[in-house]
Amino acid sequence: MPISLKRVYEKPSLKDGKRILVERLWPRGLKKDEARIDEWLREVAPSTELRKWFGHDPAKWDEFKERYWNELDKRKDIISKLAKEHRENKVTFVFAAKDQQHNNAVALKEYIENQLKN
What we know:
Helix content: 40-55%
Number of domains: 1
Shape: globular
Low-confidence stretches: none
Order of helices and strands: EEHEHHHEH
C-alpha cells in the first residue's frame, strides 16, 4: 500500500489509515486529541542539529536528504518497523512543516520506498 503524507493541521480522515507523526517536537498549537495520531515516532525524525541546519530551505533539500538518509541508515530497527507497517496497512506520515514538498516526511517516504525496492 502506498504511504500517504498529510500535514498534522489538516483534518484527520478515516482514509488516512494509521496516522504516524514523524516529528521530533509536538506541533505548535495542536491538542493531542485533535491530531488523532496513532503513533508518534520521534526517533525517526531528523536530529535536532540537522533539522536546525536545514531550516526548510529548498536550496538545501538534496543535501538534507543525503544527511537525513545517513541518519536513517543507523536506525534500521525503526525503518524495518515502518516498512512492515507500510506493507500490511494503510499508513499516513503526519508532519508539521508548511512546505509540503521539502520536509522530513517526504524524505522518509522516499527512503522507505527505496529500501523496499532493494
